[in-house]
Design brief:
- By secondary structure, the chain is an alpha+beta fold.
- It folds into two domains: 4-285, Di-copper center containing domain from catechol oxidase (di-copper center containing domain from catechol oxidase), CATH 1.10.1280.10; 303-499.
- It has helices at 4-13, 15-18, 44-58, 67-77, 85-104, 141-144, 151-154, 156-163, 168-172, 195-208, 223-240, 249-252, 303-312, 316-321, 364-368, 379-382, 432-437, 440-443, 455-462; strands at 31-33, 255-261, 267-271, 283-285, 327-330, 336-343, 354-359, 386-394, 402-407, 423-427, 450-453, 471-479, 491-499.
- The strands form four sheets. A five-stranded antiparallel sheet has the order 5-6-13-8-11.
- The two termini are 21 Å apart.
- It binds copper (II) ion (CU).
- The site of copper (II) ion has 3 residues, from helix 10.
């Protein structure tokens, strides 16, 4: 097994060459993105951001840096629900930061980030004054109601689950289903969202409301850039923990052509392989000290990586046709994954949870071994995962709905607490309207689906009893402030449980 650290430190020295062939304004030292939390109203970076946003808003529509035209880049090109989500938004923020450097006159301007895990309330500098006096002010119904982000959306437990994701697609959403080339048409096809995207990312868009809750308009609200800077910062945190970005050529070789602009308004074409590491783009975060594993290729033969990739490439129709019960799929390396599938007709709505049962025919401990979920130092070798995949979800009409996911809870009710051992995660739905407007070609690739890691839940539930459960029952409980019950209706057409 190769030593990761050795790879990682070597990477730092060669960063300067990563951007070769790509236009970049990064010269000399990288600018440092800082948390908005410690900033006074007159902080030089906040003041520069106000100047730059005011300037962009004042530019004529003929200028590509005009505020609305720059926001339209997101509307026209942003990928959500697939593995280009993170690199695309990293490039969009880098383009924005460079335009701000140019238009504010502060050459070392660095985009602040909103660390919502620490700061549950809305950043004051963005709510101060009104829209005529403060270019960062914007109409935000969720903030007007008194925003306070919930523990199950941004709490440390959520971030820990996200940072423990076993590979890039489990961390930053999965490849589009059926992808077989790096043609630009794959950029917005749907894969599956994983927790980073469907919980804090989507949840905050919806909690703020107004433009932020609509994909096509969200980057018209200046807070968009601080929200995404924190998403981007967590990506660097995941790399810093020794996790490599996807080695898959379909990911690395993808190029965003004529999506972005340089500070002078001319096109900036950039490939995913040039977006794996912030320093190559001229910035860093104040809390990152490296080393990074962004360009580390995972040693081949990592069994978990192989299992995850094999599962993501299965044809869901073939799985469904196989009928009920657990199916074993042998891998070339000698490992195996096991999958159970259930079609679902039940609709969950506010205060009316549903449970979808997937029987295994024997005890979980007999399938994975009694120590499979134990957190031991050499865990990677023995570790097993159980994921639930909710496919083809019809999203709720009220976009503020969140769906709580439990597994094997004997007493689930609307009052079941989020510290109950059976609780797994909560799902938000940002971009549901996008799916509805998708072209026929896009829709043929399915509507939204999400991957939920049930491993920690099952470890908590089953550990003292020796993994005796012979099934997983996936339970969905929508929550919504709207009193009308039907607007929170949600139905996944199919549920899969995969044991890796
Ligand atoms: Cu976003």
């Amino acid at each position: 097994m190769l030593n990761r650290r050795a790879f990682v430190t070597a990477g730092a020295a060669s960063l300067a060459t990563i951007g070769a062939g790509v236009r970049t304004v990064a010269q000399g030292a990288a600018v440092t993105r800082r948390s908005v939390r410690g900033m006074t109203a007159n902080d030089p970076d906040l003041a520069a951001l106000r100047r730059a946003v005011a300037a962009m808003k004042a530019l004529p529509r003929t200028d590509a840096r005009n505020w609305i035209r720059f926001a339209d880049i997101h509307r026209n090109f942003c990928p959500h629900g697939n593995w280009y989500f993170l690199p695309w938004h990293r490039a969009y923020l880098a383009a924005f930061e460079r335009i701000c450097q140019e238009l504010s006159g502060k050459r070392d301007f660095a985009l602040p980030y909103w660390n919502w895990t620490q700061d549950r309330e809305f950043p004051a500098a963005f709510a101060a004054g009104d829209r005529s006096s403060n270019p960062l002010n914007h109409a935000r119904p969720g903030v007007a109601r008194g925003l306070r982000l919930a523990e199950d959306m941004v709490g440390q437990a959520v971030i820990s689950r996200i940072l423990n994701s076993p590979d890039f697609e489990a961390f930053g959403s999965t490849r589009p289903r059926g992808q077989d080339s790096t043609a630009a048409s794959w950029q917005r096809r749907l894969g599956s969202k994983t927790e980073f995207e469907f919980n804090p990312h989507d949840g905050i868009h919806q909690a703020i409301g107004g433009n932020m809750s609509v994909v096509d308009l969200s980057s018209r609200d200046p807070i968009f850039f601080l929200h995404h800077a924190n998403v981007d910062r967590l990506w660097t945190a995941w790399n810093r923990r020794g996790n490599a970005n996807s080695p898959d050529p379909m990911w690395r070789d993808f190029v965003f052509n004529r999506n972005f602009i340089d500070p002078d308004g001319s096109p900036w074409n950039v490939g995913v392989s040039d977006l794996g590491e912030p320093a190559a783009l001229g910035y860093r975060y104040d809390d990152d000290s490296g080393p990074f594993a962004a360009d580390l290729v995972m040693p081949s033969g990592d069994l978990m990586t192989e299992k995850l990739r094999a599962y993501r490439r299965l044809d869901p129709r073939a799985l469904a046709a196989a009928g009920a019960g657990l199916r074993r799929i042998d891998l070339p390396s000698g490992g195996a994954i096991q999958v159970a599938v259930a079609e679902n007709e039940q609709v969950a709505s506010r205060d009316r949870p549903i449970g979808i049962s997937l029987p295994f025919g024997r005890a979980l401990g007999d399938i994975v071994g009694p120590q499979a979920f134990a957190f031991r130092p050499d865990a990677r070798k023995y570790r097993r995962y159980v994921w639930a995949v909710l496919r083809d979800i019809e999203p709720p009409l009220d976009v503020t709905t969140r769906v709580r996911v439990f597994a094997n809870c004997q007493e689930l009710s609307p009052r079941t607490r989020l510290d109950h051992p059976s609780y797994a995660t909560s799902i938000s739905f940002f971009g549901g309207e996008h799916a509805a407007h998708a072209s026929a070609a896009e829709r043929s690739f399915g509507s939204a689906s999400v991957y939920v890691d049930l491993t920690p839940t099952l470890a908590r539930m089953e550990h003292p009893r020796g993994l005796r459960a012979d099934r997983v029952t996936v339970q969905l409980l929508p929550t919504c402030a709207n009193g009308e019950p039907n607007v929170s209706n949600i139905r996944p057409r199919r549920v899969e449980v995969v044991i890796l």
